[in-house]
Design a protein that fits this description.
With 513 residues, the chain is mainly alpha-helical. 66% of the residues lie in helices and 0% in strands. It is built from 21 helices and no strands.
Length: 513
């Protein structure tokens, strides 16, 4: 994300609980709960495992990086670029942007299903939700509405995102958990297979594949690192807020997943429909069928708010980097509201093209799963770059002030950085294996889309970087974009490193600047 300055200059400080709630709001999404409900009790193991090896390391490492470069633009481009160079930094910010672009059809598929369940006839609603043409039309309609709102400016985005997050995520999450508690405590039949136990059968390799997508549940936590300096006594209170936020997030995910497992048998769980079906089943049990359409509208509003947040976020990050000379002038155009219009329009065209893949996938569910897996792969590459860069910078920029630092020496950074890197690498490898629980069609299509998708997406920024021209640089933006630390060092070392005279005494006459 575009990181310029923290709010320390305003004197305003966030409380520990406020930051913890912000973390929960930024990370929690209910659309992925059905994917983990398939695992029954062992889903709790996956949530806790991913939180320990990914969520907490991501938040803590990103906090040090964000505080370290709080006065410089670029976000993950800056963090990775300082360690590995501008080309690799551009890859990181590119992956953060393109990952969100590919992610839109999956979250919007959930939004389309929410619209389908606004009706009062459950059978008709389920049939409509499975209809490819209906889903395609709704996906495109919601996305382009979100894009046009984003073009109005951050004022509109902020208002809708704030209310949408509360109405479409936080309240439904609490309600789902409450319904599950009422259902079980009043003698409702528990459909969850309780024989599986907390620890999964790790001998079945393909059982881990759907669980690898859980890492994406926690994605985006690195963006909260920009608030590290907005807390009093950050070295003590920021970790406390992260731990509290992580525990609340895990509880929402675990209890929400259990609530779905209680009411829907594992064999009947659908990745796209089960959240709405679960709510409907609970409302039927409590003789409150009239509430089904209301929760469907709320969830749809939550999807719109979530998409708006991401449409305005990563695209703004790569826009700021592009104006510094890394993207052609076409992508630097803004409208009268200062919004990156051409990037948003190109992004919309890519989303439209991806949505049209419905015609080649055997079902909406398989399309949903394969795009989700591709999204995971791309985002995990960015995370591996971030974790390794944080360790490298402990040595390349060891004397740079770190207002928030993980440990007095390098041991804690090595531990959290390696833990996060290895966790991301494990999920990356598992994401290539087709899940046994879902019909994804031909394995050839599955592997082709994932492998070719990764190669094309990862290769694109290297091609763009190689083709860049001096004319791409916006003079004003470039002036605001601080140089990397390694760009300033050669000015000091160059005269001594490359002497022009053959006589040793000539070097003594060289002056350094």
């Amino acid at each position: 994300m575009d990181v310029k300055k923290t709010t320390t200059s305003t004197g305003f400080k966030l409380s520990v609980m406020t930051l913890a709630i912000m973390n929960v709001t930024a990370v929690v999404s209910l659309r992925g709960l059905p994917a983990e409900a398939v695992y029954g009790l062992s889903s709790a193991f996956y949530y806790l495992f991913a939180a320990i090896v990914f969520l907490i390391p991501t938040a803590m490492v990103a906090a040090e990086l964000a505080a370290m470069f709080s006065d410089k633009q670029g976000g993950v481009f800056r963090w990775v670029g300082e360690a590995y160079g501008a080309r690799t930094g551009f890859l990181a910010i590119w992956l953060q942007w393109i990952e969100s672009t590919i992610w839109y059809p999956t979250v919007l598929t959930f939004g389309a299903v929410s619209i389908a369940f606004i009706g009062m006839n459950d059978a008709h609603d389920a049939t409509l939700a499975s209809n490819k043409v209906f889903t395609l039309c709704m996906v495109l309609a919601i996305y382009w509405i979100a894009t046009f709102i984003a073009l109005k400016g951050l004022g509109w985005v902020g208002k809708i995102s704030k209310w949408g997050g509360m109405i479409g995520t936080i309240i439904p999450a609490g309600l789902l958990i409450l319904l599950g508690i009422i259902y079980i405590s009043t003698g409702g039949h528990n459909h969850m297979d309780m024989s599986q136990g907390f620890f999964p059968d790790l001998s079945k390799f393909d059982n881990l594949v759907l669980a690898s997508s859980i890492f994406l549940f926690y994605a985006g936590m690195e963006m909260m690192g920009i608030h590290v300096m907005d807390v009093k006594n950050p070295s003590r209170n920021y970790p406390k807020a992260i731990i509290i936020g992580s525990l609340v997030t895990v509880c929402i995910f675990v209890l929400g997943t259990f609530s779905l497992g209680f009411i829907i048998p594992a064999k009947d769980i659908s990745l796209t429909q089960s959240l709405l079906v679960g709510f409907d089943n609970y409302f039927h049990y409590l003789h409150m069928s009239w509430a089904g359409p209301i929760i469907a509208i709320a969830l749809m509003f939550g999807v719109l708010a979530g998409v708006l947040t991401w449409v305005a976020g990563p695209s703004k990050g790569i826009f700021a980097v592009g104006k510094a000379g890394y993207l052609p002038p076409f992508f630097q155009k803004t409208n009268k509201n200062g919004v990156q219009k051409n990037i948003l329009l190109i992004q919309g065209c890519v989303v439209t093209l991806l949505a049209l893949l419905f015609v080649v996938m055997p079902s909406v569910q398989s399309f949903y799963q394969i795009l989700s897996q591709l999204t995971v792969l791309l985002y995990l590459i960015m995370y591996m770059l971030m974790f390794s860069a944080a360790i490298v910078l402990r040595y390349k920029m060891k004397n740079t002030p770190r207002p928030f630092r993980l440990g007095k020496k390098n041991g804690l950074m090595w531990f959290l950085g390696c833990l996060g890197f290895c966790g991301a690498l494990l999920a990356f490898i598992l994401s290539f294996v087709p899940p046994s629980q879902i019909a994804t069609g031909s394995n050839t299509v599955w592997f082709s889309v994932l492998i070719i998708g990764c190669v094309v997406v990862v290769g694109a920024p290297f091609v763009i970087y190689a083709l860049r021209k001096p004319s791409w640089k916006d003079p004003q933006a470039a002036a605001d974009f601080a140089p990397f630390h390694w760009e300033t060092q050669p000015k000091v070392a160059a005269p001594a490193a490359a002497p022009a005279q053959s006589q040793p005494s000539a070097n003594n006459n060289q002056s350094t600047k």
